[in-house]
């Protein structure tokens, strides 16, 4: 299967690979797995007191499309509010990266990772 140029670019030069200290209260961690293939994605967001995502990092054990999807979303969410980041759809990721149908679940993994990280943040900051 041919990967699109954007997938190859993100795969070869992934943005924001790494991890933050998960005990830092401003860090939200989302860890998700794809049942279809067993790939795992960890996405972390650094969220300031105004609810703005200041930074993001990821580690993905998976295919090129999953790595490209996570790399892309770390760029997209920076500067966004939590509410805006929650609106990000896997279809936008798939479209940007020109993912073929069999790779759509890789972009769903990235959307799920954002949602999981935001859920973690809300849990940490509840009450
Ligand atoms: Fe996920 Fe290939 S099926 S890495
Ligand atoms: Fe399963 Fe890409 S995440 S093949």
Please name the defining characteristics of this protein.
3-stranded antiparallel sheet; iron-sulfur cluster binding; binds FE2/S2 (inorganic) cluster; alpha+beta; NIF_FeS_clus_asmbl_NifU_N; single chain; ISCU; 19% strand; 5 helices; 127 residues; Iron-sulfur cluster assembly scaffold protein IscU; iron ion binding
What this model shows, in words?
This protein is α+β, with helices and mostly antiparallel strands and 127 residues long. The chain has helices at 5-12, 64-77, 82-86, 90-97, 104-124; strands at residues 27-33, 40-47, 53-61. It has a three-stranded antiparallel β-sheet. Strand 2 (40-47) and strand 3 form a beta hairpin. Helix 1 crosses helix 2, helix 2 crosses helix 5 (104-124) and helix 4 (90-97) crosses helix 5 (104-124). The chain binds FE2/S2 (inorganic) cluster (2 copies). One FE2/S2 (inorganic) cluster is lined by residues 37, 39, 62-63.
């Amino acid at each position: 299967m041919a990967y699109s140029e954007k997938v190859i670019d993100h795969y070869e030069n992934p943005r924001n690979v790494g991890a933050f200290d998960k005990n830092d209260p401003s860090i939200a961690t989302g860890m998700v797995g794809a049942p279809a293939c067993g790939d795992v994605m960890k996405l972390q967001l650094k969220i300031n007191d105004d609810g703005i995502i200041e930074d993001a990092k990821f580690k993905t054990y998976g295919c090129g499309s999953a790595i490209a999807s996570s790399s892309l979303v770390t760029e997209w969410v920076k500067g966004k509010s939590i509410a805006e980041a929650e609106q990000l759809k896997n279809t936008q990721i798939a479209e940007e990266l020109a993912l073929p149908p069999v790779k759509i679940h890789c972009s769903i993994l990235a959307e799920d990772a954002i949602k999981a990280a935001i859920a973690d943040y809300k849990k940490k900051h509840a009450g």
